[in-house]
Amino acid sequence: MNETSKEITISVPGTIIAFLFEILLPVILSIIWMKYFYNKISCILVGIAGFVASVFIEKYIFLLLIFLIAGYGVFYYIILGLSPGLFEETGRYICFKILLSNQGYNKKEISIGYGIGHGGIESIYIGIQVLSILLTKDKLIENGSLTVSIPFFQCLMSAIERLSAVIFHISASIFVYKAVKEKKIIYYIIAIVLHDLVDLFALLYQLKILNNIYILELFFAIFSCCMVFFAYKLYNSLESDSNLENTEENTRTEDENLIGNNN
Asked: Which residues, including other chains, have CB under 8 Å from residue 231's CB and lie 6 or more apart?
């Protein structure tokens, strides 16, 4: 280990805080959702499955084929930036198609549950990665995989980024749910474009075109807040089938009463 590598440090308190936040965030959101919105954990599990399946197909089949055809180059990085939005939002779309084909899941609340599952499992995965960096830091420094120090506030950026990401995934789920529920494909396309826009900035940071992590995370946080604002409006414009059934039931009751009074 050379003298430079000895100077590389990782904030232990920051890493532990980030790890706990990224693990507990989806757990707490799931508990709140099941208590106050919908008591079926299956929607969250479908969100987890949708994320895992879409990412697996994207990274280990699609991107591998692109690499074998074109190798690493400009074309590969363009596809790398665009593919997450396409695959993850398509996975969302397919899962909502399946869920909404079951009368028991014809409720707008499932859009939130799916988003918690989708964003939550990604948060847990990132949390495990953060902890693994701390546990294996000496080996990572020795083999050159870790070449810079990670201070306390940069560790916290990981937690803040996951909060923004979960907010984004819940919002995107509402967009795609509306696309499926109301057969308006434009909302599915919008979700893909917004997802690709977020990943584009992340890709620019990885390529060191954007160098300031704090500005990047500030942009992502503002972007997610704007997106959740519009998603909230979309959510309120949706009407669960249960509400429609209650309306139809009330209409039938009024008709029956009217007929009875006429008789």
From this structure: 170, 171, 172, 174, 175
95: burial class by Cβ within 10 Å (0-12, 13-18, 19+)? Answer: buried
pLDDT digits (tens, 9 = 90+) for 108-132: 999 999 999 999 999 999 999 999 9
Residue type, 241: D
**Cα–Cα dist 240/105, whole Å:** 10
DSSP annotation of 10 reads B
Question: How many residues in the chain?
Answer: 263
Q: Mean pLDDT across the chain, nearest whole number?
A: 86
- Count the helix, strand and coil residues of the chain and give each as a percent rounded to the nearest 5: 85, 0, 15
Name the pLDDT band for 240 (thresholds 50, 70, 90). low
Tell me the residue range of the domain where 235 lies.
3-262
Q: Which amino acid is at 171?
A: S
Number of domains in the chain: 1
